[in-house]
Amino acid sequence: MVSTNESTDAAAVPGTAEQGSGGGKANRQIPSFLVIGVLSTLFYLGLYVVARMVVNPQAANLIALAVSAVANTAANRRFTFGITGSEGALRHQLQGAVAFVIGLALSSGVLALLDVAAPHASKVVEVGGLIVANGLATVVRFLLMKVWVFKK
To answer: Are 25 and 150 in contact (CB under 8 A)?
Structure first.
């Protein structure tokens, strides 16, 4: 539960003002979540490609996902769910870590499957698999953030 001391500053965050029913609120949150998701995915993939130059696929995935997950949770906290201020930020990051673990399991699973099914797959194939896994993780992440992490 978000403390009443946290400012929601909905007027400064397009798409987060609370009006009407919960369904309308979700309709405003989804576009923001999608934009942040696309930017986070691009950030994650860029980090993965750079890390992959020096470490194995699993380590690159862990590094890229850990860094991008913290940024993703902070951005969604502010822009999708309209929560500002530092109160509750650590708790939100810790709760967001659950979504991180799910995403890590999905992406690590894809990389492990590729290693078995196509051990000499190119980095392009690795990235393609990670995009699919990230898409699945994104759906889970939104649901967790909506109903648990940033529940108002």
So the answer is: no
Tens-digit pLDDT string for the chain (152 aa): 333 333 333 334 444 333 333 445 767 888 999 999 999 999 999 999 999 999 999 999 999 999 999 999 999 999 999 999 999 999 999 988 998 899 999 999 999 999 999 999 999 999 999 999 988 998 888 888 888 888 76
pTM of the model: 0.76
3-state secondary structure 73-136: HHHHHHHHCCCCCCCCHHHHHHHHHHHHHHHHHHHHHHHHHHHHHCCCCCHHHHHHHHHHHHHH
Measured CA distances, 125 to 38, 54, 115, 134 (Å): 19, 18, 11, 14
Structural Rg of the chain based on CA atoms: 17
